[in-house]
Specification:
- With 219 residues, the chain is mainly alpha-helical.
- It is built from 11 helices and 2 strands.
- Among the domains are: 2-23 and 39-81, no CATH class; 93-164, Helicase, Ruva Protein, domain 3 (Orthogonal Bundle).
- Helix content is 49%, strand content 5%.
- A two-stranded parallel ribbon has the order 1-2.
- The chain is extended.
């Protein structure tokens, strides 16, 4: 942080920040030592102190945290430490279809044949990231394969094997990401407020219940 202040504008990047701000879990057995140098969460206190002391408009220091497992971190501490959150969702069917087409044509430098099963490939790749799709295309379209593309047109089966070797996100993991994003961004609360407004109920349920209770008198 001292170096960042001396050479600002600076960016402090923290990868796997769920390990610095881990979620509280009940663990059986021995407790972790406070001064354990192998525990990333040991820098949490210092980061919070430095952030309050040195990060201002004048110092021009930005802290960027990245995580692929946000559900393993503390939602409340993330929201308290970071000013904003950006969520990169996995591509849907339409985006997957466009990604396959774009990456393949980028390598082959020619339009994709109309008889290529692009729709099927887009369905199969749901749950995979854009990086996985690009990695698969680059793995399949080697210089040797490109030299034979006139004799042997591309087939769907060529991409299935390499794609299966890439990391996939299951539906329950995707829901964890969405839940985390809704909490940090406040989207869940906003959607609830909009739904109440559309239903003609502008007051939260708790306040309504209290008002009903006040109206009742004991005999």
């Amino acid at each position: 942080m001292k170096a960042a202040k001396a050479y600002h504008p600076s960016i402090i990047y923290i990868d796997e920040c769920e390990k610095v701000w881990p979620a509280k879990k009940k663990k059986k057995g021995k407790k972790a030592k406070k001064n354990d140098m192998s525990n990333p969460s040991r820098i949490k206190k210092a980061l919070t102190k430095w952030r309050a002391k040195w990060i201002t408009d004048e110092t021009r220091i930005t802290i960027v945290g990245c995580t692929s497992e946000p559900h393993e971190g503390s939602k409340k501490e993330f929201k308290k430490f970071f000013d904003c959150a950006i969520y990169f969702p996995f591509p849907d069917y339409t985006t997957c279809r466009l990604l396959w087409k774009t990456f393949i044509e980028l390598v082959t430098k020619r339009p994709l044949n109309s008889d290529f099963h692009l729709n099927t490939l887009a369905h199969i790749s749901l749950g995979y990231s854009a990086g996985s799709i690009r990695k698969t295309v680059e793995f399949v379209l080697t210089p040797f394969r490109m030299s034979k593309i006139e004799e042997r047109p591309l087939r769907l089966t060529e991409f299935i094997g390499p794609l299966s070797q890439c990391a996939n996100t299951m539906e329950d993991q995707y829901e964890d990401f969405r839940t985390f994003t809704d909490f940090v961004s406040g989207d869940a609360a906003r959607r609830k407020a909009i739904a109440q407004a559309l239903a003609g109920d502008d007051e939260p349920a708790g306040k309504k219940d209290k008002k009903k209770g006040k109206g009742k008198k004991k005999k």
